[in-house]
Amino acid sequence: MKLTIIGPGLIGGSLAKDLRARGFAKHIIGVDNNSVNAKQAVELGIVDEARPFAEAVKAADVVLVCVPVDVIEKILPSVLDTINSNAVVIDLGSTKSAICKAVEKHPKRKQFVAAHPIAGTENSGPSAAINNLFDNKTCIICEQDLSSKEALSVAQKLFGALKMNLIYMEANEHDIHLAYISHLPHVISFAMVNTVLEAEKDFKSLFNLAGSGFASLTRLAKSSPDMWTPIFRQNSENVINSIDAYISELELFKQLVKKKDSTMLHQMMERSNEVRKVLPADKK
Length: 284
Description:
Structural class: alpha/beta
Strand order of the largest sheet: 3-2-1-4-5-6-7-8
Number of strands: 8
Distance between the termini: 37 Å
CATH class of the largest domain: Alpha Beta
CATH architecture of the largest domain: 3-Layer(aba) Sandwich
Largest sheet: 8 strands, mixed
Strand content: 5-15%
Radius of gyration: 21 Å
CATH topology of the largest domain: Rossmann fold
Number of helices: 12
């Protein structure tokens, strides 16, 4: 299997590492507009070679599009224009509605599978790629009925090689759910860090005082603005709804603290503790 990865960074590079190690791909081509990143991906052995966009896409049996979601939306029609008649294209974007809409009437739509592997770290670039990033994680495939059986089968085998658990849903459903379980946590982390940095001007003292709770809550704030700005823009309506819901909870919490209402505060936190029943310990 000859694989082309557009964007061999954290996600694309980690995909390449495991798909090569597990025998899914024998030859991997990288595409990156950043020549430094392209060179680094080759030097690190993430890809076998770097080629220009059209050349790399034409040569592939499978094309993985692992760039920011606004770039996916822009280049995906061109990828489908360029692939050969038997190739499969899979995008790995964190939003799905805008991306799916961009190719909904494309004559090669059946060769495309819209996917979102829910895995990652706060790091970016080829050097951030790691082995086993996707093991036992969830991958969402959207609009499966619009993909051919052959394309869907290739995607299922690819994610199977990555040891991912597959679930299926429509693109709009995906974007609503992810606004709450992924996009909102990033909003909260970015906003909280900015709040603390504004209040605490002495950075050295701040980090000396910070405990593991602060570190856990702020990890997401280290994520790439280049990746997250277009996610918030593409999924703005759902993200706004999730922020509004969160603000309502914050306002309630604020009022209870203001009133020193220990009983209701305790009840709110007890309700939050219900997450123990649904979230495995290794995902906390």
